[in-house]
Amino acid sequence: MRVYVDGEPVDVPEEATVRDALEAAGVSVPEDVTIAVFKGEQKVERETDRLRIMLETGDEELSLTVAVEDERMSEVCEELPGASVSWTTRDEVGLGPVDVSDLEFHTRRGVEVPPYTAILILPTNDPSEAYFLITKRRMAVEYICTDIHGRVTAGRELVDELRGGERVTHVEPVVERATERVVSRVTLDDGLEAGDRIITRVEIELEKNAPVSAEHLLNTLEMEEGRLRIKFRTDTFTSIEPRPFYDLPEENVDMRERGVVTVRNRGVDEGVVYVYRRDRTPVESHNVVGRVRRGMELLDVVAEGDRVLVETDPPRVNFVGLTVDEARELAEEFDVELEVNGDGDVVVDQEPRETLNVLKERKVRVEVVPEDEVIEIELYEDDAPRSVEYFRRVTKMLDRPVGRLKVHFAYADLGMIVFEGNEKLGKKLPPENNPKDRVEAGVLGVTNQAKPHAGLIGVRLEDSEEYGPTGETFEGTNVIGRVVEGLGRLREMDQSDMGRTVYVREVRGER
Question: Which PROSITE patterns match?
């Protein structure tokens, strides 16, 4: 029988499993990622987030449709049958009263509200005497119940025709008739039927007008070995657990249609990646970085904590951390002119930094240093996540495998070398992954907020049962990693090296 793997046809026996089909297609996937199978389409009826409010006026029946943006607004609308239009002005229409004694809410005064917004107001501060208000123009509203609102999406012209006394007869959900794609999660050992379409990954085409945000997405993928972990899922979007990133610019603000990928550029969720499942209007806090070209159905069935394979077009073009020979091969692969500055073997910086800008300019300038000037380190991100994030931020390694440290002081006779940190950020570092009995030579650590010199970064040059890499006692020390290669080079440094730049390159592997 014939099935399809990521769009490609594959012939397999009748009793074949998902695993058999993947092997026949030459496709391998990690055991911990989610896979789906698309079975076809079916006609369905489903409720939407909109409610139809029916009003009676004489022999005529009027209909208004409100898109509900909060569950409590649905509960308010359920109380409307029997209520009447109590007043109309050139600015607003009020229906009620309605009893909302069972709802939790807060009230504010003088809140600016757009036209044709449905809100709840509490003019007497008595929840049994609340009113459902529809605005006709932008206006400041008094005694508004915050976070209980909706939008009039149909029947706006009728709002202006209401004169008072019209009665709400009933409220009903708006039902959509749609064609629904039948998709289900599967395991590698599940059986298949003829025509099944196996989806193993999501393919994203990057937008050329969001190079910085796209690089953040590419870095997140690279650090997670091509997999993204689902953080949150709603009917509107699926969000991805991000790598930390700061100071994202506003770029390529556009419509958030189904399949659009965005990165939040501000706020507490800065850096979070979103894939939209339903259309939404543009918002300045979201940069559109790409569009799902294949595999959107997989994101319709994932759950929080799932991992999905993701590929991008184009893939990341990052030279930092490569040898000069590797950099030349990469430049040739993508038809990019390579300009090498400096004497050495290891690329420690590149300009432009962003993949999309490199491909746009078809030229990249890289800075190289001798390999023996680059210290290789392993970071313990799982054991000390906040401290490792701090280290990457200080060294500018949030999106690159190579960073820079400046020597603060080097005393071989004291058994440590200390590098400059960021005192302001360091004061926010809580104790985590403190040493227990001893600190071995090569251990990398930072001073936490328990000590005056919070934020200093250090490497232990010899074992100690008393002091950490920055010379602090164990309660003031957060262990963040170890030196894998180059400890001898650090031992050669002394006070004449104060202020010198030391390059560090992260290697990932088993401890």
Answer: PASTA (PS51178)
